[in-house]
Write a structure and sequence with these properties.
Mean pLDDT: 92
Number of strands: 7
Shape: elongated
Structural class: alpha+beta
Number of helices: 3
Radius of gyration: 21 Å
Length: about 160
């Protein structure tokens, strides 16, 4: 893979991550709205405690989804700020670490994704694995999920 292809891959993966987070924000926003609506529509019954419990549960769900949405928005902002326009030689934010059958993109903790048939682990720069990769270079090895992986390239 040449210089231009590496930069294009990083830009495409960053866009993939941004799109994924945007979808997660929208799902959380819709779920929070539905939970709020359900709480508001809880009808008063002869058993007043049941009404209050239903409303309280609806509000708790709405708060949970609102927290998720806020976390996704923080991830979106952090990912948006990561620079992918340069090639890296060490695992730093914005770096892509290529191993034989998996790639690690150090940008945001979005988990394992399949992108164009390739397994990519979107890794938060603050994740323990990111710390373990610190100061590694192409040719170095590390343990991931009980397997020893060799870094083929970092860019």
């Amino acid at each position: 893979m040449d210089h231009t292809e590496k930069l294009a891959l990083k830009a495409a993966l960053k866009q993939y991550g941004l799109d994924l987070i945007r979808r997660r924000i929208e799902v959380a926003r819709q779920a929070a709205g539905q939970a709020q609506e359900a709480a508001n529509n809880e009808e008063k019954s002869s058993a007043g405690d049941k009404y209050e419990t239903g409303r309280a549960m609806g509000h708790l769900q709405q708060e949970m989804y609102a927290r998720q949405q806020a976390e996704y928005e923080r991830e979106y902002t952090a990912l948006h700020q990561i620079r992918t326009e340069t090639l890296c030689t060490t695992p730093i934010p914005g770096a892509f670490i290529q191993c034989a059958d998996i790639g690690f993109f150090m940008t945001a903790g979005l988990g394992k994704q399949t992108v164009d048939g390739n397994i990519i682990l979107f890794l938060s720069p603050t994740a323990p694995l990111a710390g373990a990769l610190q100061n590694k270079r192409a040719g170095d090895t590390f343990i991931f999920n009980g397997r020893t992986l060799t870094i083929e390239d970092i860019f």
